[in-house]
Amino acid sequence: MSNFLLDFLSLGAILSGILVITSKNPVISVLFLISVFVNVAGYLVLLGIGFLGISYIIVYVGAIAILFLFVIMMLNIQLAELSAVGSEYTQSLPLGGIVGSLFVFELISILPFSFKGLSTFNLSSVSNTFSESSLGVINWFNTLLVSSIGSTNDVHQVFDAAHATDSNFTNYIQIESIGQSLYTYGSIWLLLTSIILLLAIVGPIALSMKTNNTDHLYTLYR
Amino acid sequence: MIIDTTEVQDINSFSRLESLKEVYGIIGMFLPILTLVLGITIGVLVIVWLEREISAGIQQRIGPEYAGPLGILQALADGTKLIFKENLFPSRGDTRLFSIGPSIAVISILLSYSVIPFSYHLVLSDLNIGVFLWIAISSIAPIGLLMSGYGSNNKYSFLGGLRAAAQSISYEIPLTLCVLSISLLSNSSSTVDIVEAQSKYGFWGWNLWRQPIGFFVFLISSLAECERLPFDLPEAEEELVAGYQTEYSGIKFGLFYVASYLNLLVSSLFVTVLYLGGWNISIPYIFVPELFEINKVGRVFGTTIGIFITLAKTYLFLFISITTRWTLPRLRIDQLLNLGWKFLLPISLGNLLLTTSFQLLSL
What we know:
Chain B: Its EC number is 7.1.1.-. Chain B: Keywords: Chloroplast, Membrane, NAD, NADP, Plastid, Plastoquinone, Quinone, Thylakoid, Translocase, Transmembrane, Transmembrane helix. The complex is a heterodimer of chains A (222) and B (363). Chain A is an all-alpha fold. Helices cover 72% and strands 0% of the residues of chain A. In chain A, helix 2 (26-47) packs antiparallel against helix 3 (50-74). Chain A is globular, with a radius of gyration of 22 Å. By secondary structure, chain B is mostly helical. The interface between A and B is medium-sized, with 21 and 26 residues.
């Protein structure tokens, strides 16, 4: 029964995703984005990680999608200006092709293709160097914080499903196991994410702060 | 193809018994859900009557007295009137968004009832992450409000919808942090575990004494989530006519009306489950569960007592919120948002830190 529903949920997510980009009305696009989030949350719940699915709904639907809805509804978008026909449409296709292929190249070079061992399948030496160097930088930060992980291939283990210490977590419930692994092995990711969130909080406040004084720079450093 | 008689008998028995068991299984799945929905509907009728009577008492007048004895059927009369009214659609509004808006608000509130334990084994789904389901699903309600405000093709409805959504998401965060503190205290997010963690010392085992600040913040935040006075601005009559509900008539307005009371009931039930000890008889030194486990009749009796106790504790919070509605004046939108972000959020964060440090110290 759950296999049956998994197929429907993934089909619903893909369909909603296509409808997001092909809808004429931007409000309908955001509503289909909400549908994508809800389908993926249901998929995660059926896979067994219920906490992650519920937190998808809390964060994505309850905060991010509402933010999008606020912005889209408050902008006065004239639907006639949005639809492009003829040469206006085809002249933007080459740029779209370039950006899309760049994205696909990044995905193929970063993600490890084999999850069982530590070998990754890479297309060329250039992408090999890119992935190894980025993983090396992240590993160096990680070794500064968690001294028990010391080798170069350990960050792969964060992505790796069959890890030796994962068996310790079968005694815990889901939230405990997420907390245990996030705050020890994944501490570098946690700290990076918190820095990004802090920036996201401080940035808009600094940008939108109303100053009575005309000397903007002076009031920021007051 | 030669089939033996035993095989034929097996196939016959399989098709007869197993299909019947499947049917019973499916019916058995729907029966608790239908019972819960029936209970909720009766609960909403009771709350509407309670509100009329209590507000009449506060304003020193007689409440409803014509619809049924003592006005008990007043809610049914209101519902019937709303069903018979004409369903208006604004002429250039977005019809689909206009229709779906109230439904999403009601659906998200009704789904939260599935994790509330009414008595010892009477919970629709005992999830590991029960209270977080409520938090997650109550995050979907502002989308319904935004859709109904936008689809009305009316600037004032739109503003009302934006304000209602802003109020909802602002008070969600102190609510979540209070619920997190409770999960820390009881070591689990399942509602049944939270109630059972409060069952040891009777009256003194309530989470209310361990989390007084959290109780205070939770009360205010849940009143704001339900959009009841004093946080009534989305439906304010002087400022915005009726906010996002302006263009609604007939049963769609009835859905908003019912959604408000459903939200109130679910918030009150969560207050009893999280802070007031749920279904436990809270008189200390009476070990009631052992008394009632003797035989089947005793268990049924014990479960029924549990339901009555839950409802009695819920009534306390309902009385407090209805009295608050008819006593306090309304807050302005900037006062409302200030209260949510600058007062309740730091207090609930501090409460979480305090709870965490006390948990660490007691280890």
